[in-house]
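Ticket #4471: complex job returned nothing on first submit. Input attached below:
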Amino acid sequence: MLKLVNVSKYYYSKGVVTSGFSRVNLEMHRGEFIAITGESGSGKSTLLNVISGLDSYEDGEMYIFGQETSGYTETEFENYRKRYIANIFQNFNLVNSYTVYQNVELALMMNGRKRKEYRKKILDVLRQVGLYKFRNARASRLSGGQKQRVAIARALVKDTPVIVADEPTGNLDSQSAENVWELLSSVAKDRLVVVVTHNFEQAEPYITRKITMHDGQVIEDAEIRKPEEVKDERTAEEHEGRLRFLQKIRLGIRNTFNIVPKFLLLLFIFMFITAAVSIFYSSTLKNNFVEDTSGYNHFFDDADIARIVIQKKDKSIITEDDFSRIMAVPGVGRIVKEDLLIDRTVYIWSEELGVNGNIVAASEFEGQPELGRLPENKDEVFVLLPKTHYVAENGTYERLMKGSFTLELPFGKSNSSPRIVTVCGVALSDMDDWKGRLYVSDELLAQISGAIGDSFSKTELNANGHVLQSSDWDMTNAVIPVDWVESGTALVSDEWNGYYKNYRAKGKTFTVKIRNLYYSDEAELLIKDVYTYRNFKNKTLGMDEWYRGAVFVNVDDYLALFDKGYYQSSVYLSDFSYKDSVMTALEDMGYKTLHVNSNTESYGGNWARLERLITTGMGAALMVTLFLVSYFIIRLIMRSRNTYFSTVRILGGTASECRSLIVIELITVLNLAYAALIGVLYAAHKGYFSNYVTDTILTYLSFRDYIILYLVMLAVCLWIALRYSRQLFKGSAMNTLKAV
Ligand code: ADP
Ligand code: MG
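Support reply: We reran it on our side without changes. The output follows.
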């Protein structure tokens, strides 16, 4: 059945060739129980390893059932081993953390047998070796003799025609050794059993043949007694199956839990990584968000995250009908029609007090005045103060009601003339802001809107075909609205005389043309009078000389140029989560939309960006370090399992099967760690407890982030498994075995 013809085995190491054995000729059959003896170093193990297919040979030919094996590839040798050979070792090579049953089962799993088919068989074999009682005991708790009997059972269930054993009794007391010999001889009835031993006396009562080796040569080959006749010279059953998918999962999960400290350590590391990454990631997102939302914009003063600025795509007026349609969009909380007012802070001050705020129509005030009443005429202002404002805090707000204040609009030449107002009432509010609101009458509101409109518009004068523009550095040709000029007329400088026939501007007309983003308009005005350098003060009722060169027009005429309705408004969301749906709805309705907050700059500009980059970079470096440290710890843990995987390997496991087992094991732990994280977050979400860390994670990590985190961890598991299995399989099965 097994035949060696002139087989030689050499070892090459560091340029030196050593002979394992040379020119061995042997023929072995089923039913034989062969002992190989000889002194240490004579080549017994080497011969056995070659027969086992664990080691290659260089010369000669080895036949199995008449088939040549010298041309076998590595895979073919693996199949050879699966089909024909079962090994028994001096050091048992059991998985100590498995039960007796599981150890035997492992051999069958690695051969792709089905659970249904082998269960009864394993129990039968365990009865045969006398270990049925111990089937559920862990291998680590057995005596040496019992362990070797488990190894024999494991060899038996495979149903291979050949069983080889290298010093199987070397680690056993004489009584246990006797039992093993007896067991092996009973097994040899219909198989070939080859045993290496240096204790021939012990073997002699059982064996059928003795082979003695010396210095790599067979020096004696003697029949001790007649082997039993085996009629059935069948070849082996087809058993080079692979570990089945479900068995793989079962085995991987068994490996996850069977060594409890290892499991807990791995679980701890995975939990630590998932927690650390989610905490780091969510707090980075939070910092960025906080920075973004507290950022401001040079143009838009109010960068509230709920604010969306709209204008029509065709730049036409937004009508009251349009406003009602916008209000009907789900998620729209309120609309500020006069959008430009939102972004302008207006100051009023007296000699002792100053307050600032946005201008709001008096009709929009809600709540109760703390003092006084709402405005009733043009020169009154009602002040709403945040309670945290220093004027409110000191209780000095009562003094606002006394005396007069200067109202200054910080833009537009036409408004450089300050207005004097009185405060008619005060209210306090809980709003968290550094500025308040100034509620004004519609009349004053129109004037202020006009001023704002002016600041966004370009004004052009046309005097008898002469196009005049206002000077950048003085008031020459600046249009100043005043209430002492009669409607439809204007007061201009005597310089204008030059633009008209007969050097006389008085009684002639000119046009004021304004143009801005949305529209243009013009008015034709009569030059009622001209002023000279000398009579300026008189004719302007005492205006500051700084205004020399200006064109004085009636305020109503002037405001009419800007009073065109609303071209740009702001929509405030009732809830930020509506942002995208409201933006889409508005776009569909024909509006251009701008989510102000998404377009803000950070306070610190480039510095803040750099700082963010550095902190993010440092965080990322920390994460990488964490990963590397974890990787090395996990690798260390996996390395402690070298023995396990070499046993799997000896039982016919391939590199990819071992890799799968590692992957399944790591993924099981990962899933548990991840489930623990999700469980903790879910409990926090349900309100069982609450703290800063879980709150941050819950608020800032989206479903997508959880998926990404999981995938990253998965990739790390695969990477570790790949690296580890590659290292484990650098050499042949023999190297793996010898490394144990
Ligand atoms: P035995 O099992 O009879 O004690 P071995 O078969 O282990 O002897 O060894 C036979 C010869 O092969 C010895 O000279 C030994 O030094 C040599 N040998 C065994 N294994 C190796 C190896 N991996 N590399 C180099 N030489 C080896
Ligand atoms: Mg040996």
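The longest strand covers residues 16-28. Closing as resolved unless it happens again.
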